[in-house]
Amino acid sequence: RQAKTIDEPHRLLADLFEKLVDEEFDYEDPVGSVMNAIAAYDASTAENVEGSLRTIFEATDKRSDGITEQSVLSALMVLLVAGAKTNPLIVHLQDLHWCDVNTLMLLEKLVWRLDGVYSSEAAARSSRKGVLVIFEGRVKERGAPGEEDWSSGHFESFLRKIDGPTALCSAFDPADGLDFVRLLFADGNKGKHTSGELLGLQEELVERIFRAAGGNPFHSLEQVKFLKESGVLGQNRRTGFLYLIKPDIGTERPPP
Predict the structure, then answer these.
(1) Are the C-beta atoms of residues 16 and 106 closer than 8 Å to each other?
(2) What span, in angstroms and rounded, lies between the C-alpha atoms of 203 and 213?
(3) pLDDT digits over 83-137, tens only?
(4) Which end of the chain is more exposed for a tag (fewer CB within 10 A), N or C?
């Protein structure tokens, strides 16, 4: 996850720390829970990063005055390397076109550090499994006239500096977005869970999910996740296809 506007420059780092701490994360005390997780491996790093964590989790403006880059990098390295001790770790960072320059520079240095750790001969001989970082964002975009000056240029420059393998995906048009949602569901040819009248209700739900998500496939998946948690949708464990459980969905409102 990542900031959806340029007004949340710290959200990416907050979300990254949250996911790396995982089950130990405490929403009532985010700073304390992250520090405790880091302290389990390096008490000194945990102590040094406290001020930066308070800015990341508690700041309400764009200022990064309270963030010490060195302490944040060290803390992230501790958690990433620890997370990859037994199994390879995949970190997928989305919507990086919203990132400010400082955050992208920090991510660039994080990649350099990871490369140094896992490309060394000592690492090759050790049991370290490795970390795969996926950077995702839009390119060749600018803010609308009259809005605060913004473009995806910083992210594009970041990608050039990283110089890793790049996958360019064409944008979905409305028809693609609707087809994407339909492909998630079982129909008469894919499974026995949904048939007859329910198929018509299911198609109506598919269109509602598509409209609520604005055609964005990632947002569509968030809608689906919400409806599964609400008991509206089920998922076939064998095929993976979704099917409608609760025909009356009038009270279930997917998140915006």
Answers:
(1) no
(2) 15
(3) 998 888 999 998 899 888 889 999 999 999 998 888 765 556 566 678 999 999 9
(4) C
**Which CA distances in Å does 155 have to 11, 114, 134, 167, 247?**
16, 20, 13, 14, 43
The angle at the Cα of 223, spanning 1 to 93, to the nearest 5 degrees, equals: 15
The span from the CA of 161 to the CA of 221, in Å, is 31
Tokens of 110: 């994080």
Give the Cα separation of 17 and 37 in Å (integer). 10
Phi, psi values for residue 90, rounded to 5°: -110, 125
The DSSP H or E segment spanning 30 is helix 30-39
Predicted local confidence at residue 124, as pLDDT: 60
37, 57, 205, 219, 241 from 68: Cα distances, Å: 19, 14, 47, 33, 46
AA identity, residue 35:
M
Whether the Cβ atoms of residue 15 and residue 2 lie closer than 8 Å to each other: yes
CA dist., res. 249 & res. 228, Å (int):
12
| The one-letter amino acid at 142 | R
Q: 184: which 2 tokens?
A: 């998630």
Q: List, in sequence order, every beta strand (DSSP E) within the chain.
A: 89-93, 131-135, 233-235, 242-244
CB 91 within 8 A of CB 132: yes
Consecutive H or E run containing 38: helix 30-39
SS3 56: helix
What CA–CA distance (Å, rounded) separates 225 from 239?
A: 17
| Bridge partners, 162 (sequence order) | none
Pairing state between β 233-235 and 242-244: antiparallel
Its pTM surpasses 0.85: no
